[in-house]
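User: We ran a pulldown and think these components assemble together. Before we commit to crystallization trials, I'd like a predicted model of the whole complex to look at. Sequences follow.
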Amino acid sequence: MTSATLPLALSTPMTPPMTATPLPLAVSTAGLTKRFGSRTVVTDLALAVPTGAVYGFLGPNGSGKTTTIRMLLGLVTPTAGTREVLGHPIPDAADQALHRVGALVEGPAFHPYLSGRANLARLDAADRHTDPATAKARIDAALDRVGLLAAATKRYRAYSLGMRQRLAIAGALLTPRDLLVLDEPTNGLDPQGTREVRSLVGSLAADGTTVLVSSHLLSEVEQMCTHLGVMREGQLVAEGTVAEIRGKSRPVCRVLTSQPDAAADVLRGLGLAEVTSQTGEAHGIPGEVAPEAIVAALVGAGVPVAGFTVTSASLEDLFVALTGEGFDVSG
Amino acid sequence: MSVAEGLDQAAVAPSAAASGTATGLASGPAYRPKPFSTRLFRSEMALIGGRRRNQMGLLVLAAMPIIMAIATKLTASDHRRGGDLMSSMTTNGLFVPLAAFMVEMTMFLPLAIAMLSGDSIAGEANLGTLRYLLTVPVSRTRLLAVKFASLCAGAFWGVLTVAIPGAIIGIALFGFGPMPTLSGSTLSAGEAVGRLVLVCLYLTAGLSALAAVGLFISTLTEQPIGASVAVMIVTIVSWILVGVPQLSWLHPWLLVDHWMAFQEFLRDPIAWDAPLAGLRLFALYAVVFWTLAWARFSGKDVTS
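Assistant: Here's a predicted model for the assembly, 635 residues in total across the polymer chains.
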């Protein structure tokens, strides 16, 4: 189990993986490609999820997100390319990597006639790296963390969608994890549940767990994530910190006024870019100029200001800009 | 090594405590995985035994010898021993499970194996639990090994569910004592029980071979019913082929042909030729079909 390329601290057999030298990337892929028959679902993907990040994995339906997640978890074999999770190549060292990875993939799935607790006990029994003596305590802790302790003895088939989702999240938390891969974690959850998931992700990230969240709820993603990766038709069209991705869209300053031309002149004088004027309003890109300075300049020039806003494009607008306006699934 | 261990211990404590806080878990020193653990196997057996459909199946398996014994008791007027197992029931209670095996090995026990093997991989894929089991992680080889072991244990359980109720009702209705063999001599009661045990083990081996076929079929589909039906078709076609004299060259290669060789254990001395040939074929089937299942399952994309 020693590897010449890894530092000694990472290579001892009984290493619990949070070692003295954390890896820069929790997940990295190179040239990852997957073809199902004649259809290429993922093309040449180079994913880089930094350790400790909350990485929002976005993309329209059918863009290859779930296939990518399945490839990372060793469920699907890529047609080409390599992948590494927590520094271990998949599938060669999958056993070492995956027991530190908690996953929720394409919705919850459990045995309908077993209780919630029994289902978690089964997953725990399958894990060779967990101590059976602490199984009950850990299962209770996981159920408590997702708020299912009271319903733990009910049969899974009696659970509502939100409860099933919570059980799946509990399954990902049975043992300390270094990476959580959550595919639509808030699907079906009530507002309290959604808030709880958000705070759970936040607290896990604060402790150094990397979280890969795939979601369509862009407002959720905006609140939770530190990094984003956007997929479109099997390719990664944008990746980076939220600030970097947002930086691609610049805030726009909008002045509501009865004298748009005069306002436009003031804006140009201040050095705003792309200044335009229409009936009732003037726009410009403020760049480095502070909004307070713009307002002061407008008032000082005697321009009647009825309203003033500086808005940045919402993540939704960014997302649609990156992935296309079309409603049809790509294939 | 000790320096690295020292580093590990130092790094483990804060991170373990920290992640412990986040998930509410108190994690102590790192747990070393045991080289061999039966936890997953026990979970499988609990899953098999807890399923209502399987419990009903066990009831049916147990009911057959009971019905046969009671029917024989009610209709038999002549206590003379006949030449075959069925009519021998009245002479000694231990013939009841043996006669029940003759009946149940044709369809009921293979059906039980078909149901269990359909559930094993195809059932998990159908429910969607297969992907969660694989990402625990459970290696595909280990999963197939544990599933096959649970199928063999299920086969044994099924066989016992015929043998024990059958023996109990048989002894209750027809008495217990020295047992006449098919060769004409008599076995002591203790030896008779020993022979019954050997029959049970032999039939378990025979059903385990079928279970290996079922496991392989289970890896080919996501529909457990489809897999179960396929296993039943294999069994039925085998029985049909065994009845065709022109295909006698094929018979030694069919599982079902060797199942009925359990009767050789009732001879005195035991006629080992046929059972040993049977065991060799069972082992061959088990190895070949488990390997096929492994070859298929190892590379398969799990999209369920």
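Chain A has a mean pLDDT of 87. That may be worth checking against your pulldown data before setting up trials.

User: Thanks, that helps.
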